[in-house]
């Protein structure tokens, strides 16, 4: 018998491909990458990188809650940016969603992201 469970919530954007919003195995939850999509309209939102980063963290928070946790349970974050010049602005937004000790993190520059956005964030949490 498998202890793997798919997590889904309508409070975060629906998957735009063959993947789950998150997968929970035992007490570890793997949250799929989120981009700044409005969950109701599935349209990209945000006039600047800070607004887009907030939408992404809000989406991740909704999935974390659907899995029975919160962003406080996140132990690892992976950020992809098409412009590493946005690194400082994303850091500033991240400090409003997480408190010390901050999760482990990687941030990488990439050539492109789904739907032409400039930011995508995925996470791992332990609950």
Task: Describe it.
This protein has 127 residues and is α+β, with helices and mostly antiparallel strands. The chain has a single domain (4-126), classed as RutC-like (60s Ribosomal Protein L30, Chain: A, 2-Layer Sandwich), CATH 3.30.1330. The protein contains two helices and six strands, in the order βββαβαββ. The protein has helices at residues 49-66, 87-97, and strands spanning 4-7, 22-25, 28-34, 74-81, 104-109, 119-126. The protein has a six-stranded mixed sheet, with helices on one face. Helix 1 (49-66) packs parallel to helix 2. The longest helix is centred in the middle third of the chain and has 18 residues, at 49-66. The radius of gyration is 14 Å and the shape is globular. It starts with a strand and ends with a strand. The model has no long low-confidence stretch (mean pLDDT 97).
Annotate the secondary structure layout.
Layout: E1 4-7, E2 22-25, E3 28-34, H1 49-66, E4 74-81, H2 87-97, E5 104-109, E6 119-126
Parallel strand pairs: 4-5
Antiparallel strand pairs: 1-2, 2-3, 3-6, 4-6
Helix pairs in contact: 1-2
